[in-house]
Amino acid sequence: MKQDIFQAIADPTRRAILTLLAIQALTPNVMAEKFDMTRQAVSKHIKVLHECDLVKAEQSGREIYYHFNAKKMQEFDHWLAQFRQSWETQFNQLDQLLSTIKEQGTE
């Protein structure tokens, strides 16, 4: 079953894995050392991320390196952009209201 991207990034460990992989490709063994958990536990998190296409696997000899898939995250960012513009508009309106109230208070 293919995982939903929102379910994948809802987990704090998976978000931490994505942050690590954004810096450099890592093997599950190296990731397990950074999270104080077993390789199997890390592999389960990676499986979810891989099913969502958020990470890509690359075989190098006997090791599998996982890479952050920035292209997939960019798709997610584009989806969020529509909400970001709405939030910014609302915050700008709030800033203007607070400035008006502050100016009225100093008069």
UniProtKB/TrEMBL annotation:
Q: Drop me one GO molecular function for this one.
A: DNA-binding transcription factor activity
What InterPro entries has UniProt attached to this entry? ArsR-like_HTH, HTH_ArsR_DNA-bd_dom, WH-like_DNA-bd_sf, WH_DNA-bd_sf
Note the SMART domains from the entry: HTH_ARSR
Q: Report domain HTH arsR-type positions.
A: 1-88
| CDD domains named among the record's database cross-references | HTH_ARSR
Q: Provide the protein name.
A: Winged helix-turn-helix transcriptional regulator
UniProt organism field: Mucilaginibacter mali
